[in-house]
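User: Hey, my collaborator sent me this sequence without any context and asked if I could get a structure. I don't really work with proteins. Can you help?
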Amino acid sequence: MVAKAKVSELGYIGFTTQNTDKWTNFLKEVTGMQVSDKADDGTVYMRIDERHHRFLIHPGEEEDVSYFGFLVKDEQELYGIAAQVEEAGITVTPGTKGDRESRNVLGMIKFNDPTGFPVEVFYGAQVAKTPYYASRESSGFKTENMGLGHGVIWTPDLMGSVRFYRDVMGLVISDGFVGRAFFMHCNPRHHSLALFQQRPGVNKRMNHFMVQYNEIDDVGLAYDIAEKRGDQFATTLGRHGNDQNVSFYVTNPSGWETECAWGARDVDDEVWQTEHYGGKGDPYWLHVRHANLEMGLGGQRQPQQSR
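Assistant: No problem. I've predicted the 3D structure and written it out in structure-token form, which is a compact way to encode the shape of the chain:
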């Protein structure tokens, strides 16, 4: 199966937490996001550009991602994705009026990928009535035609997940680490989605999300602010070898990671050639795990495993 209808960006991410205030303050203070709105049920909407929101913080017991929302260009493309997902043997649920209103979109569908990960596909995202203003000094985020950044999830079936997002959703493999991870794009951003083979002891779906700034100084400022706040760093500053982002990772209030980044290379599908990486790691330099430990998802700290 080759996807004819294709998603065009990772448009929003929703996650659940027991402490929406702590999450809201983290995103405002460390990353510079702006609070867009707050729903009657306690959901907090966060902005990073002209869209009404890119992140939704839902109150709840689970400290994990709730869904990824992928954008398509129009209603016809949405119908095409729905048909492809159903052809793959997966039940598709049309978004209700309440769903559409809660996501501020014109139309959407919902389903679980083959491993059970919740996915939403939508069109007609709401543009906010007011300009975007960062909650702290910031050059802003690189989102135009590329979506919010990227999201990385653990999957118990790496190659099965890759085939689904490639053949059914229309994403393209950028590169990967054989048997461990694959990075996939749907626009010039090096990857909007990454899939990591689930490790023993991992008990969450989410590994991290990345936001990309327009200027490198914002990465340094975010690092300074996180340090002053006393946040737990997951890594030092470093530069990846595949997307070439300069970034650091900080542990967020739910115990998984947020990546603050700048400087990724773009993908041109006319000339791009899929690559793979071997050896023990990906960084050009640093991205050293603090105290040579790796955050175990679920609040446990575990010895670092080679990447």
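In plain terms: The longest strand covers residues 9-17. You can pass these tokens on to your collaborator as they are.
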